[in-house]
Amino acid sequence: AQSVTQPDIHITVSEGASLELRCNYSYGATPYLFWYVQSPGQGLQLLLKYFSGDTLVQGIKGFEAEFKRSQSSFNLRKPSVHWSDAAEYFCAVRTQAGTALIFGKGTTLSVSS
Amino acid sequence: DGGITQSPKYLFRKEGQNVTLSCEQNLNHDAMYWYRQDPGQGLRLIYYSQIVNDFQKGDIAEGYSVSREKKESFPLTVTSAQKNPTAFYLCASQRQGTEAFFGQGTRLTVV
Question: Do the Cβ atoms of A42 and B105 come within 8 Å?
Fold first, then answer.
């Protein structure tokens, strides 16, 4: 069965510092990969997605993610974090033949001034 | 504007009561989903539907029921059989081969 692991439950970074959120998946083939962001009490907003092609994908709000097949990873990065980036971040996968997204348990990002 | 609308935003349920959460989309998406979110648990799939009049159980379907009589609507009923219904419920829709779009959620509390 497919699974998604986000090893970091909570991360705190200083405003202006760089950010990397980790995501590892378990699946025999290359899945479709997603990062979503959620503000408290709100729905999920898509940051970026990877289906195929270039393994470095750009998303909204200055985020990017890199798919590494050898490591089964899809880590999210941002060069300079803003206070408004404080939120919960979810990595998700879907098999190419499947339908529903499978989510990791999320990483809460706090931004300190 | 196209999107997914969940209502109500907040819902309170008494012990032994059934309640229904509404989810409507005007994106013309075939597939719709219900997820439950608990702190530290991520999102867990309750039910999903890929076409009208058809739906499948997800990982935690016990105590829940759904219907899909119209393409635009996918209501979720939380029955009295669900022993721990307090959670944040998210509805999503998806066109085949693309990403899922989410509603703003309904917070259900047992009182």
Answer: yes
